[in-house]
Task: inverse folding
């Protein structure tokens, strides 16, 4: 479908307004076109694109997966919305091998791939003339940073290969030629072929049954008819099966772990219902999940209609399903309303972390929600103690050139901000405000300035109240404002008393009591232990509490981190096995960092293990750990 020509000049005019107010609500009866923000704070430095001149509105992929050569290739057909005087469109690419570009009639178009910029890729500039529909024939590099090709032995089944993608923040340009910026939302569709018996899933709605091509391959078709940030286009393929949870929810996983995965996420349909009751309808149709092999670098990724999950959250008791609640909450904050630039990542992660906690409260009760919020707040305090309360990286909004002080700011300080507002104005009033924020900006990009103005207009009842709420201070200033709502100290009263007792007399909790504690309580205890312990003290803790044998990876990680920091030799084999199996950066990077900090004892261990495990890690994990261990190719 083509946009109405008469609307083009109005739609793409560069103005000083926040959004393109003249834009029609849709380019056709089927495809929505999201606005482009044009204020200075919405200019994305991570893209080569010039969306005010020419922008991608729709991507149609026709790709083949080649597991023998670790390649994906085919064509990407792009619909373009451009100013009448636009003669070129600039796309993002990183290692793409482009063989040909044509217009909708098959006429050759000139293109050029510019100089590569480290961490950003290279601009793909196409001379489009009057063309508003172009076809790019290309192949992605086998080392494409978004993709991880797994050999059969890296999977639970051990018989078939596996592929998954991870596009956030700007990695999808390594396998899709488009404008890879969160502020340039696009609808998309895909036809993907793969060898039998592998199944393919994507972050779009599967269209019918796979088509048998008669050559040992099948074709899968997907559609995403809502405009999404391009980092949310995702793919996975492997020996996977599906099991329903509810009428619109289900889980994919390798057959060997499907039973465990299905049991762990059995509360998902109820989570969707509670999320809708809080902040409005779920607008994406289905909510399915796939539990990936352990090489996946994150806890989860909120790809629309198909959340990607690490198997490390499977604890056998649903104690770590806050991860599922978090990724589900992204269906509103992040996917529905998306940060226009990465400097405003807290609009995704901070708002989502608050929303996650509200879902946990509804499903598992106030005590668990309070405890998990307290763990989150402790992470903020730890970060501020490390970097300083006035460090620029501790502000929620991060202007270009300033690096965030880490996830405790983007996720936890953002959640603490909303929790404070709820405390100040009351839950009923706060919920009404947050729901209207999602409704009024659905399928659109947003900035810190936009939510700040929205809070002043629709949450605060006066300028005086806006000042009292310290809205600007929370968003733009470092540290924690004085009005921060602190967690209830009673949330961990029993655990903190036990940790204090251990710190004083080395009294270890009884094994029976330990087993009755929640995972949040066990994590809190481990975090509160003295940082310097002898080998005998560590051995006693392990014997009494079964720390090295736990099936909860969050707890195991904390135990290994503590043990390695104290040069506890018996923990090394367990750490090596853990690092060989798990690719989640949250666990992998800190453990290698801990070993490296232990000098002559730990550095050789870290380098020996990393030399073996590095090939099994996703590019996201490798990129962070390479710096820690000083890896040289």
Result:
């Amino acid at each position: 479908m083509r946009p109405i020509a008469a609307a083009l000049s109005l739609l793409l005019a560069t103005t000083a307004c926040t959004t393109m107010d003249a834009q029609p609500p849709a380019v056709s009866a089927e495809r929505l076109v999201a606005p482009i923000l044009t204020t200075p704070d919405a200019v994305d430095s991570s893209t080569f694109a010039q969306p005010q001149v020419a922008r991608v509105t729709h991507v149609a992929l026709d790709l083949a997966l080649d597991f023998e050569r670790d390649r994906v290739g085919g064509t990407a057909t792009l619909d373009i919305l451009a100013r009448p005087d636009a003669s070129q469109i600039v796309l993002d690419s990183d290692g793409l091998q482009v063989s040909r570009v044509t217009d909708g009639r098959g006429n050759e178009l000139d293109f050029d791939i510019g100089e590569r910029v480290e961490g950003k890729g290279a601009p793909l500039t196409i001379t489009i003339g009057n063309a508003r529909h172009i076809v790019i024939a290309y192949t992605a590099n086998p080392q494409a940073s978004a993709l991880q090709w797994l050999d059969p032995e890296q999977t639970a089944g051990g018989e078939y290969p596996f592929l998954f993608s991870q596009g956030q923040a700007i990695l999808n340009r390594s396998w899709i030629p488009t404008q890879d910026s969160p502020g340039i939302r696009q609808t998309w569709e895909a036809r993907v072929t793969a060898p039998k018996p592998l199944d393919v899933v994507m972050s779009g709605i599967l269209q019918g049954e796979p088509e048998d091509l008669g050559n040992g391959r099948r074709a899968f078709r997907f559609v995403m008819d809502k405009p999404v940030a391009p980092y949310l286009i995702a793919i996975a393929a492997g020996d996977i099966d599906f099991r329903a949870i509810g009428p619109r929810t289900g889980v994919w996983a390798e057959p060997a772990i499907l039973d465990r995965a299905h049991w762990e996420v059995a509360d998902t349909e109820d989570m969707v219902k509670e999320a809708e009751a809080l902040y409005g309808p779920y607008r994406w149709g289905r909510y399915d999940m796939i539990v990936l092999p352990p090489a996946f670098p994150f806890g989860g990724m909120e790809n629309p209609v198909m959340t990607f999950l690490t198997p490390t959250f499977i604890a056998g008791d649903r104690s770590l399903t806050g991860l599922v609640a978090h990724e589900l909450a992204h269906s509103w904050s992040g996917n529905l309303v998306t940060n226009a630039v990465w400097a405003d990542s807290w609009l995704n992660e901070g708002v989502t972390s608050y929303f996650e906690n509200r879902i946990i409260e509804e499903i598992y009760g106030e005590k668990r929600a309070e405890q998990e919020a307290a763990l989150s707040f402790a992470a903020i305090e730890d970060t501020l103690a490390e970097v300083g309360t006035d460090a620029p990286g501790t502000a929620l909004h991060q202007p270009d050139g300033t690096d965030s002080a880490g996830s405790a700011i983007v996720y936890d300080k953002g959640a603490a901000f909303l929790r404070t507002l709820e405390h100040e104005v009351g839950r009923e009033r706060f919920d009404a405000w947050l729901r209207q924020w999602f409704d009024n900006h659905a399928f659109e990009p947003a900035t810190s300035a936009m939510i700040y103005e929205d809070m002043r207009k629709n949450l605060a009842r006066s300028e005086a109240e806006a000042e009292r709420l310290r809205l600007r201070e929370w968003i733009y200033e470092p540290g924690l404002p004085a009005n921060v709502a602190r967690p209830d100290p009673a949330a961990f009263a029993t655990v903190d008393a036990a940790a204090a007792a251990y710190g004083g007399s080395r009294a270890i909790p009884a094994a029976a009591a330990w087993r009755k504690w929640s995972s949040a309580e066990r994590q809190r205890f481990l975090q509160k232990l003295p940082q310097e312990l002898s080998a005998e003290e560590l051995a006693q803790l392990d014997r009494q509490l079964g720390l090295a044998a736990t099936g909860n990876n969050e707890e195991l990680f904390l135990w290994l981190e503590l043990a390695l920091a104290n040069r506890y030799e018996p923990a090394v084999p367990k750490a090596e096995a853990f690092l060989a199996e798990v690719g989640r950066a949250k666990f992998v990077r800190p453990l290698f960092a801990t070993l490296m900090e232990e000098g002559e004892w730990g550095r050789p261990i870290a380098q020996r293990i990393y030399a073996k495990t590095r090939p099994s890690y996703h590019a996201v994990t490798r990129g962070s750990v390479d710096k820690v261990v000083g890896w040289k190719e």
